[in-house]
């Protein structure tokens, strides 16, 4: 039997985290949630998800800091990281690429777009 892929949703806004979880409920995946950067880092290291949906602006550590820490560690470098941000400026996109993010989505995102991207990744 194939093991379910793990997806970590790191988002400090409860409503957006819930919306993302509900959007991904149709995926045959094990979902984990974090509400700040430190928690996201801890869960990612413990659970080793295939995919991390990572908000940029979070308390504790920013999404950029979490991404950089995970991508610079050989144990977690293989986690696919999608940065989610309400700020779609080129500078945010460039910074996401600089810290090793694999993909970048601007919030609010379309649930269809999110499901399509997750489907491509997993």
TrEMBL record:
PANTHER family: HYBRID SIGNAL TRANSDUCTION HISTIDINE KINASE C, TWO-COMPONENT HISTIDINE KINASE. The modification 4-aspartylphosphate is found at residue 55. GO terms for molecular function: phosphorelay sensor kinase activity. The lineage of its organism: Bacteria, Bacillati, Chloroflexota, Chloroflexia, Candidatus Chloroheliales. Pfam families: Response_reg (PF00072). Residues 6-122 form the Response regulatory domain. Keywords: Phosphoprotein. It comes from Candidatus Chlorohelix allophototropha. This is Response regulator.
